[in-house]
Amino acid sequence: MIRVAILDDESKSIRSLVYELEQFEDRVEIVAQYTQVEEALIQLAENELDCLFLDIEMPGMDGFRFLEKLPVKSFEIVFVTAYSEYAIQAIRERAFDYLLKPVDGEDLDRVLTKLEIEKSNQPAPVTKGKVILNTDQQMHVVDPDEILFCQSEGSYSWVVPHSGNRIMVSKNLKHLEGILPDRQFFRIHHSYLVNMDRITVLDKSHSHVILDSGVRLPLSRLRKKEFLEILKLTQRPS
Questions:
Q1: Backbone phi, then psi, for 154, in 5-degree steps?
Q2: What stretches of 70-133 show up as alpha helix (H) in DSSP?
Q3: What pTM did the predictor assign?
Q4: Tens digits of per-residue pLDDT, 198-238?
C-alpha cells in the first residue's frame, strides 16, 4: 500500500485528486491533506509517507520554495500543476514525477506504478563487504570505509568517497541509511549521512564536525545527543 499526502491551496483541486486516488483504493492510502503550507511543514515530518502530491502554484510560497523549507524529506515528490511549462523545471528539481491538472486516471496509474516499483526495491546487494550504488547509467561497487559522507540532493543523493570523485545516486538518503553499516554511518543532519570513522574533530560549539579530508559538515542540534552517544560507541581501542 502506498501512503500519500496532498498539499494544494485549492480545496477543489484536493477533492479532485482524492477522487482519482480513490479509484485505486486497493493500492493507495491517503494519510493527510493540507491547504496550508505552514501546517504541512510542521506535520509532514511526523507522518510516514511514500509520496507527497505537491501543487506548484500556491500563494506566499510555491512548491519549489516549500521543498527548500522542508526540514526532512524521506518521501518522493510528485508535482501537480495546471501549468505545463513547469513540467521541465519540476524534472530539473529532481521530483519523482509530475502530473498535469486535471489529473488523468491513466497518468495517475503510471505514477502509482512507478511508486510501487520504487517501494518494492530491495536494498542494494553487498559484495564482499562492499555496496552497489546505482546511478542513472552506471553501477558502482564501493567499499563503505572509503565513503566520507552522503549528501541529499532532492530525490537523489551525492556519495562522496575519499577519492573525491562524487557519485550521484538515484536514491534518497533514507535508502542509503538502509544499505550502509548502521553504527558506521549516522545521519548528523537532514541533508548529511556521515562515516563516523572519518570524523577527526567536533568543534567546541558542537555545531560542526570535521572529517579527515578536511571537509566541515553541520551537526543538527536535534541529533547531537544521539550523535555523541554513537561517537563513544564507535571509538576504537588504540
A1: 65, -130
A2: 86-92, 105-120
A3: 0.54
A4: 999 998 787 899 999 999 999 998 888 888 887 765 554 44
